[in-house]
Every structure is written in structure tokens, then in C-alpha cells.
Design a protein that fits this description.
By secondary structure, the chain is of the alpha/beta class. It contains 8 helices and 12 strands. The strands form 2 sheets. A 7-stranded parallel β-sheet has the order 8-7-6-9-10-11-12, sandwiched between helices. A 5-stranded parallel β-sheet has the order 2-1-3-4-5, covered by helices on one side. α1 links the parallel β1 and β2. α1 packs parallel to α8 and α2 packs across α4.
Length: 293
């Protein structure tokens, strides 16, 4: 089989991909390729049999343009660790008032103000896949209580328990981390109804912007200036409508950007391609019904 990696690779990385797949691996040559390993760019050709993403998310794909004969697989879990790390970087920055103190110091103001701690807080995780698991692991190191709501209930030693509904998750949590994929079901699931149940202080979004209903979240933040929305994603990014509310901490979708892990993510994708080439069932086959309109 012919595999096309749809991004630039060093010669060493390309050779490693050839060793992993046992196939003729090329760079940016979709014509004639049976498999395309992609970030965003891909080409639907007559020979295409499999699309394997390098990223975990697949909501950027135009599923209508990809024939049913083509197997589509995500790379779930490839960047879970840095994304979870980013969630806590934002949480600690706000709870310890890092940005406030930095701004004050640059103005020549050296004033001690009270800060908060994450220790002992109850963390609710919406979506317990790779990112959710990594988030729970870090939370446990901070002696936080962890609960989760997820369509699958595959827990581990870092999760205290699952709850039965999003409403229960929001009612019980001091902090909620959004870590689910964007699908037909999750699009806009964080709305005024769920937000009205939230008794906590901070919502962190390291999922996708559109799992949150924009108008409902902005109205909630306006009415609740003491609440915080910490997010690595924004609606219609990169065309962000400024100014953003004062109780928002926004980073430009960088949680999963990690150069040291990028090559490993490509190799992991190639390992899944090898399963496909060998006639085995690959991991993380995408259910098109979850994404098709």
C-alpha cells in the first residue's frame, strides 16, 4: 500500500514512518495513495481507503465529501497530556492571580492580595476520554476530588466517581473542565439550562468552542462577574470578536501544540495505519453519524 503523510516531515521521521507501517510512505502525494495521514489537508481520490488524523479531533472533516468506503480514524489521546497541562496552567494562573500581580508589578505596585487554592476543590470533568483522564491524574496530585460525566464509564484510580447527568456534574462541581469531542450531540450542550445549575466558580474549555452556546455563555458571564470562563478555544477563531469579557481568560488554541510530542503523534497515527494495512481493525474508527448533519 501507499501512504501519504499530508504534512512536511524530516527524512528521519519519514523513514521511521516507513518502518512502522511497512509501506511505501510519501509526503504530500495524495494521488495514488491508499491511506492519507492528515492534520487538516486531505484529498478524496479514487484510491483512498483510509484517512487517519494526527490530531484527536475530527470535526474539521467534511464527512459528506468522503465516501463510505473510506475508513476514518482519529488519533484520540495523542495530545492529552499537554492539553490537560494547559487546563491547569489556566486554572492556576487565575486562582493564584498571576496575571493580576504581573500587571501590577509592571506598574510599580507591590501589593499582597488574597489568592485561592485548588487543593480540596471538586473538579467535574465533562468527557472522560484521553484529555479527561490526564486532567484527573493532575487533579489527584493536587488532592482534588474528581467526578466525571461521560458516555462511556471507563474509570481509573484517579476518578472518584461518575455522575449520571451533565446537570449533576454542574451542580456538584467547584470547577468544570470541558473535555468532550464536538459532535451532533455535544454541539451547544453547555447552554443557559446547564449554566443555571452551576454553583461553582470556574469553567475551563479545552474541547471545542461550539460545545458551548455562545450567546448563553456571554450572558452568563455578564450576569455573574465573579465567575470565570477559561478557554483555549473561541467561536469563529481566529476571527475573535474583541473585546472579550473581563472574567474570561483566553489563549489562542495552543493547548495541544507541543513540538516534542508532535513526531510521536505522527508515529502513533502510523501504528494505527499499520493495523489497517495488516487487515486488523484499527483503533478509534469514527462513527460518521455523530458528525454528519
Amino acid at each position: 500500500m501507499i501512504v501519504s503523510i499530508m504534512r512536511d516531515l524530516s527524512e528521519d521521521a519519514l523513514q521511521r514512518c516507513r518502518e512502522i507501517t511497512g509501506a511505501d510512505v510519501r509526503v504530500m502525494e495524495p494521488e495514488g495513495a491508499d491511506v492519507q495521514v492528515i492534520y487538516r489537508k486531505y484529498s478524496v481520490t479514487k484510491d483512498l481507503k483510509m484517512i487517519q488524523t494526527i490530531s484527536a479531533g475530527v470535526d474539521h472533516l467534511d464527512f459528506k465529501s468522503v465516501p463510505e468506503r473510506v475508513t476514518i480514524c482519529s488519533n484520540a489521546g495523542a495530545f492529552s497530556e499537554p492539553v490537560a497541562e494547559h487546563a491547569f496552567a489556566m486554572l492556576l494562573s487565575v486562582s493564584k492571580r498571576i496575571l493580576d500581580f504581573e500587571k501590577q508589578a509592571r506598574k510599580g505596585v507591590y501589593e499582597k492580595l488574597p489568592v485561592n487554592s485548588l487543593i480540596g476543590k471538586k473538579l467535574g470533568i465533562f468527557g472522560y476520554g484521553g484529555i479527561g483522564r490526564s486532567t484527573a491524574r493532575i487533579a489527584k496530585a493536587l488532592n482534588m476530588e474528581t467526578i466525571a460525566h461521560s458516555r462511556s464509564r471507563n474509570g481509573d484510580e484517579n476518578l472518584d466517581r461518575f455522575v449520571d447527568s451533565p446537570e449533576e456534574l454542574f451542580k456538584e462541581s467547584d470547577i468544570v473542565v470541558l473535555a468532550m469531542p464536538l459532535t451532533n450531540i455535544t454541539r451547544g450542550i453547555i447552554d443557559s439550562h446547564l449554566l443555571s445549575k452551576f454553583n461553582g466558580e470556574t469553567i475551563v474549555n479545552v474541547a471545542r468552542a461550539d460545545v458551548v452556546k455562545e450567546s448563553d455563555m456571554l450572558e452568563y458571564l455578564r450576569k455573574n462577574p465573579d465567575k470565570h470562563y477559561l478557554t483555549d478555544v473561541w467561536w469563529r477563531e481566529p476571527k475573535v470578536d474583541f473585546p472579550i469579557p473581563e472574567n474570561v481568560l483566553l489563549t489562542p488554541h495552543v493547548g495541544g501544540i507541543n513540538r516534542s510530542l508532535e513526531a510521536n503523534a505522527v508515529y502513533r497515527a502510523c501504528q494505527n495505519v499499520r493495523k489497517f494495512i495488516d487487515g486488523k481493525t484499527p483503533d478509534h474508527i469514527v462513527d460518521r453519524k455523530e458528525y454528519s448533519a
